[in-house]
Design goal:
418 residues, alpha/beta, Rossmann fold, GMP Synthetase, Chain A, domain 3, 8-stranded mixed β-sheet, 11 helices, 31% helix, globular, ANL_N_sf, phosphoprotein
């Protein structure tokens, strides 16, 4: 019988840092002094973990309303860098970092890379974007902290990426899963697979399923790892899965994780699925108290066979704001990933098309299939899986591999034309 993670003990370890973090935010951040004060909180009021659950949440809307530096807590003379979200769905979020924040992030990222098996002898190709976006800079800092060789190609220019990959004998590829797939398929098309020296792939920035993992691992003959992070909380590198792939280990010495019911806000026990809420324990530039990530997951109860002391959350099933409703049923894209993983012949790439036909909602799933499989059989299997696991009837269109667009960043999969 598998041993159980002792979350009560972990919380006891975190408790002194939690008190310090909340008091720091109250004292140093005008935003939190006002927000916590409105909730009736004063320094010294945090006496139990139940008290934390009574503190108000912080949302992305709060961060946008504070643009540009309304949530900065450190003195400006101590801030050494800023990063920013893209701002594609509203005002960008600007995050200030102190020197300690930068170093803490590098430690977390190096820890994540090491958990994936990266060593000082590896050559690591970093394809995410640099600049205001956190990913490129964060990965490079972790690679250097670990003592490996960073190959900072940045995004795009697939021709150059493959040239560097073959000539510099890259052993670790880092990027979005979408771009990892694109590079893998391009290498195969150009007959370059036997010239690659890759052994590991570390992919994040978007949710991706087991079907894509299997496809990339088979194509590139590598082991892949899912890395998690978000701009508001340092950036990527705050959690990663290990070689057992039973969940993503997160760094509880830097971060406090809660799972809440996304509707009621009630804290849920380990094992129950809900929305991830994060409190930073050591962040100085922009500490966050009970930040609602909108990411849906659960804390894993069973201890990992790898023996790591760090607890785990499950891979994301989606976001609470990614949910779509059709025929009265709430659906997350992660459920479609699950359907494809159980459908023989179906590949990882798909699109969900939502339309109104004759005053009724209609869902069409476009999915790529492996060569040699019958379109009719794969479509019928998909329809059956969707009906049994999700509870709706859907139209399924099967396409040859490579028919759907590939992306150098994140792939858009949901198109709602209703």
């Amino acid at each position: 019988m598998a041993s159980i993670i002792d979350y009560e003990r972990i919380t006891q370890e975190q408790w002194p840092k939690l008190i310090t973090a909340v008091n720091y935010a109250f004292e140093k951040s005008p935003f939190y002094r006002e927000r916590l004060g409105q909730a009736g909180f004063q320094r010294g009021d945090l006496t139990s973990i139940e008290d934390l659950a009574r503190l108000p949440f912080t949302t992305k809307e709060d961060l946008r309303a504070g643009y540009p530096l309304g949530l900065m807590a450190a003195d400006e003379k101590d801030v050494v860098r800023i990063h920013s979200s893209s701002g594609t769905t509203g005002k960008p979020v600007i995050v200030p970092y102190t020197q300690k924040d930068v170093l803490d992030w590098a430690v977390m990222m190096a820890r994540a890379l090491a958990m994936a098996g990266v060593t000082s002898l590896d050559r690591v190709q970093v394809t995410p974007g640099y600049g205001l976006w956190t990913a490129g800079t964060g990965f490079q800092a972790g690679v250097e902290q670990l003592g490996a060789m960073a190959i900072p190609t940045g995004p795009g220019n697939t021709e150059k990426q493959l040239e560097m990959m073959t000539q510099l004998k890259t052993t670790v590829l880092i990027g979005t899963s979408s771009y990892g797939l694109l590079l893998a398929e391009e290498a195969a098309k150009r007959g370059l697979l036997d010239q690659l020296h890759l052994r590991l792939g570390i992919f994040g920035s978007e949710r991706w399923g087991n079907k894509m993992r299997q496809h990339m691992e088979e194509l590139l003959d590598i082991q892949t790892f899912d890395i998690y992070g978000l701009t508001e909380i340092y950036g990527p590198g705050i959690a990663i899965d290990c070689a057992y792939h039973q969940g993503l280990h997160y760094w509880h010495d830097f971060l406090y994780f809660e799972i809440i019911d996304p509707v009621t806000g009630k804290v849920l026990p380990p094992g129950q699925e809900g929305e991830l809420v994060i409190t930073t324990l050591t962040k100085e530039g922009m500490p966050l108290i009970r930040f609602r990530t909108r990411d849906l997951t659960r804390l894993v109860q069973e201890a990992c066979p790898c023996g790591s002391p760090y607890p785990m959350m499950k891979r994301l099933i989606g976001r609470s704001d990614d949910m779509f409703k059709i025929k009265g049923v709430n659906i997350f894209p992660g459920q479609i990933d699950q359907v494809l993983s159980q459908t023989k012949g179906a590949l990882s790439e798909y699109q969900i098309i939502l339309e109104r036909r004759e005053y009724k909602d209609h869902m069409c799933l476009k999915v790529e299939i492996e060569e040699g499989y019958s379109s009719d059989e794969v479509a019928a299997s998909c329809r059956s899986q969707i009906k049994s696991s999700i509870g709706i009837l859907a139209e399924v269109t099967c396409l040859p591999q490579g028919s759907l667009p590939r992306s150098e960043k994140k792939t858009k999969r949901l198109f709602d034309y209703r």
